């Protein structure tokens, strides 16, 4: 063990210079796209090109300084990817503004991006250790349920009750609720992952899969059912699907049981069939998905999905060029739900593939931060946040290409929407905090993690008893990562790390010792 100690303190290189170089490249690409739109539409550079470039550059520089000072070991790719996606989103929204005189959505989106970057800086600088959030998990879930319930009190917009409109401002509370629920799921599953993996009864006689006891699984399932029920009442199918996928993925990461994936897919299929038959708003979307050209055959013109498919077809391999497409025919949703259709038409398959690669890289770096985290809460939190981005991209891309029914969600960073862009910047900030903790050398100074008694309210009886034990030679130290538990929990051999439950997956009931 002594020979391994020096290697453990080496850590990974900081690479803040690489991050700064990539940020400069991201800003330059965004400014180039902005200028290309102006040249294509008006034959001259847009008058606000310098202000746009300066504004985006200042925001990116401030975010970089926050990471350099407060999270120097963080992944150097997370922030540049977010800057480039946000910048390209502003370019596409500005391009669609030119189709309708009087529209000023791009400046508004830039203001919301400023708010998002400000929140990013606050999270990176004020949150010294991501494990502090574990203490406030129940506060997060109460706030999330309150945010999900508020839109019911306001009138529906386009068939869904997901907005709060006050004094001319529109806020989508469900965007913030998904991050709060991810924090709660991560904290609760981290505290009860042993019981979730081994305790309980078999689902059926010849199955190896066991359900946890009701008092362990009951609270988290109840909260999930409440959140999804509220969303169904609000007719927000997309966010309901996202929460369900988030719940199943985090449960799988916590327990290592692949059976949860099968159960989740079965429940999702049953729920989709039931909601599709009972809810007219959802049923109409399913009909449009099954018959996208029915309105054309009936002489009523192309609907949004048909226009989206036409846009992708017109783009071809390399696109028509920024500012040259006709995706405005989709209507008001061209800037939000169907902004990928604009990218597909004007950037072509090559540009659309590049965007998907950026999203894939963002999700991959998020999962990598989770796999490298030294604590179960950090692993689950990073996996949950990365899954939120992955589910959103899949659901939206699948909807506009006809793979699955439309859900009405916003493409992360790319689509118009203040609540969405602010939430996505918060997600990137939390991923950077987890990444910094995972890559930081063990001997480097960092904020002390929460002690076991502080997290004890989240745990089951076994974890609470362990938290009340006095500190001894094997107790968890406040400034060192946890390597061995004071006692071997159920399913772990003495001397084996508790994190093996997450890394290796559970053992069969007959070999638990």
Uncertain spans: 1-9, 447-513
Share of residues in strands:
under 5%
Structural class: mainly alpha
Helical stretch count?
A: 19
The end-to-end span amounts to 26 Å
Largest sheet: 2 strands, antiparallel
Strand order of the largest sheet: 1-2
Mean pLDDT: 79
Q: How many distinct beta strands? A: 2
Overall 3D geometry? globular
Helix content: 55-70%
Oligomerization state: single chain
Rounded to an integer in angstroms, the radius of gyration calculated over CA atoms is 24 Å
Spell out the helices and strands N to C.
Answer: HHHHHHEEHHHHHHHHHHHHH
| Number of individual domains | 2
Biased composition (Low complexity): 453-464
Organism: Streptomyces humidus
Membrane topology: Multi-pass membrane protein
GO molecular function: lipid-linked peptidoglycan transporter activity
Please characterize this protein's 3D structure:
The structure is a single chain. The chain is mostly helical. It folds into two domains: 13-439, no CATH class; 457-511, no CATH class. It is 62% helix and 1% strand. It contains 19 helices and two strands. A two-stranded antiparallel ribbon has the order 1-2. A hairpin with a 2-residue loop joins β1 and β2 (169-171). α2 (16-42) packs parallel to α4. It is globular.
């Amino acid at each position: 063990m002594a020979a391994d100690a020096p290697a453990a303190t080496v850590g990974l290189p900081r690479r803040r210079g690489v991050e700064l170089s990539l940020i400069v490249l991201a800003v330059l690409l965004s400014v180039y796209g902005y200028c290309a739109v102006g040249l294509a539409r008006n034959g001259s550079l847009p008058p606000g090109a310098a202000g746009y470039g300066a504004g985006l550059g200042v925001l990116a520089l401030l975010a970089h300084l926050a990471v350099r000072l407060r999270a120097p070991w963080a992944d150097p790719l997370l922030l540049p990817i977010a800057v480039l996606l946000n910048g390209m989103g502003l370019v596409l929204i500005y391009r669609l503004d030119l189709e309708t005189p009087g529209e000023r959505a791009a400046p508004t989106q830039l203001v919301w991006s400023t708010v998002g970057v400000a929140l990013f800086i606050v999270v990176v600088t004020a949150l010294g250790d991501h494990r502090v959030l574990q203490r406030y998990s129940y506060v997060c879930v109460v706030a999330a349920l309150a945010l999900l319930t508020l839109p019911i009190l306001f009138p529906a917009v386009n068939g869904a009750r997901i907005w709060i409109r006050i004094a001319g401002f529109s806020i989508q509370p469900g965007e913030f609720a998904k991050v709060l629920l991810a924090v709660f799921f991560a904290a609760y599953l981290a505290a009860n992952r042993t019981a979730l993996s081994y305790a309980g009864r078999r689902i059926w006689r010849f199955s190896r899969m066991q359900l946890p006891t009701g008092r362990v699984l009951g609270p988290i399932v109840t909260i999930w059912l409440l959140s999804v029920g509220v969303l169904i009442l609000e007719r927000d199918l997309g966010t309901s699907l996202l929460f369900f996928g988030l719940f199943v993925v985090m449960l799988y990461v916590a327990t290592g049981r692949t059976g949860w994936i099968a159960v989740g897919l079965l429940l999702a299929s049953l729920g989709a069939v039931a909601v599709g038959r009972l809810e007219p708003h959802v049923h109409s979307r399913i009909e449009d998905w099954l018959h996208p050209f029915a309105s054309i055959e009936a002489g009523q013109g192309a609907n949004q999905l048909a226009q989206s498919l036409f846009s992708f077809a017109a783009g071809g391999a390399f696109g028509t060029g920024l500012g040259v497409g006709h995706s405005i025919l989709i209507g008001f949703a061209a800037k939000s739900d169907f902004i990928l259709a604009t990218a597909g038409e004007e950037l072509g398959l090559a540009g659309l593939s590049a965007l998907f690669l950026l999203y894939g890289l963002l999700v991959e770096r998020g999962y990598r931060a989770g796999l490298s985290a030294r604590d179960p809460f950090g692993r689950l939190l990073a996996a949950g946040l990365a899954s939120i981005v992955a589910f959103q991209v899949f659901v939206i891309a699948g909807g506009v290409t006809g793979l699955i029914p439309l859900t009405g969600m916003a493409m992360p960073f790319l689509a118009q929407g203040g609540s969405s862009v602010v939430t996505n910047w918060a997600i990137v900030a939390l991923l950077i905090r987890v990444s910094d903790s995972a890559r930081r050398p063990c001997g480097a100074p960092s904020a002390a993690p929460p002690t076991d008694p502080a997290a004890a309210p989240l745990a089951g009886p076994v974890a609470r008893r362990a938290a009340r034990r006095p500190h001894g030679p094997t107790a968890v130290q406040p400034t060192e990562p946890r390597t061995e538990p004071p006692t071997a929990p159920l399913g772990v051999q003495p001397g084996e790390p508790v994190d093996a439950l997450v890394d290796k997956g559970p053992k069969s009931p007959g070999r638990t010792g």
